[in-house]
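Throughout this review, each integer encodes one residue's backbone shape. One record appears below.

===
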Amino acid sequence: MTRALTASLAAALIAAAGIAFVVGPQRPAARAVAVIGPAAAEESGAPIYYQDPDGKASYSLVPRKTPDGRDYRPVPAGADISFDDEQAAAPPPAATAGGERKIKYYRNPMGLPDTSPTPKKDSMGMDYIPVYEGEDSEDGSVRLSPGKIQRTGVKSEPAARRVIRTIVRAPGTIALDERRISVIAMRSESFILKVADVTTGSHVVKGQPLMEVYSPSVSSAAAEYLATITSKTTAGDVQYGRGSRQRLMNLDVPESAIAAIENSRTVPTSIAWTSPRDGIVLERNAIEGMRVQPGGVLFRIADHSMVWALIDVAERDLGMIAKGQPVTVKARSFPGREFTGKVQVIYPEINKETRTARVRIELQNPDLILLHDMYVDAEIDTGSGEAALTVPESAVMDTGSRQAVFVDRGQGRLEPREVKLGNRGGGFVEVRDGLAEGDAVVVSANFLIDAESNLKAALKGFAEGAQQ
């Protein structure tokens, strides 16, 4: 009977909205339209009206076509017609023995936290809305009708195990490897006779001549060594000769210069000083004719084939960093070029101004394009490689001190549940406690559901207070 009454009302509304009568002697009268009665339509299954095939709010009492030639969809009397999907789709509330629903309280029609145990009007004259038994849940869950779920775009997705790959991105700079820097300094009073064509920034190789040096102490040690190796060899002379050679080595005389003394059997007036390693000349202080005191730095040479990337990681991300994690470094000067390495050292201090910790990565630099103090960007892969229970990040309602999700329990019931979270990455977040694998969680329209639950909780509290 209710369905027939609804169908009759629908036909009446469509007829009132869709048929226009034109009055006037020069206009033809409106044509008569045969409308099938609701009872007869329900018995015969004939359509009572026609609706746009795309579901738009366009109806007709007679067959009709869209502008693109498609037929309107016939709607029979037996179809699920309802102008209030909230009441039609909601589960039937509790009823008394006489079939009437029992009203628990009345709530403010504007959604304000104000309830009344008796019928009431607000300041604008609007009636308070009755709340029946069974419409508010006792377990804290939120109940939504299918119509509201569809309109608000509520979607659910089961919690599943995934491998989370969390990438920590941080800036940094290139630094020289402290173990690959050499300083050339004299260990005795010396005079520089000649300097090779080597300047700051020049690339040198191991054994390349850098300068010619005269040192009285070196010449004296060389003469003593030459005397021992040219005299008649005896057991004592051999030991004495080893001591003379060691004296030259203590004066840091290059091995090539000692070998030249042994081969020529002469004491040179000057010694050719060579580079101890391959690298770039960072500093040159040697000048022809200058006098050098012991300890004076003449050249500083650094090997650039291996460099350090010093990355400043934010303090909040420091707990995810560990030694051995793979790192990809990109230089801002060379877009598209990537350098790979691993975390070697995590420095045990925090910069109090920037609240960052320094991490060191060793990088191969075979073509020497990474330069000292160059800016770089690093991506540290902190994933463990093990699958963990995860949900989409959009499913989490984070208040700062608490995190919760809405679990879909079916039939429009959504239960708020507090969870404990872990790592994040790739649009997902790890759930360490509060969910089981397969639990369906709401991933969209969470804030609308949260507002609904807060409103119901407030109304319920006011209602209980009013009853007391």
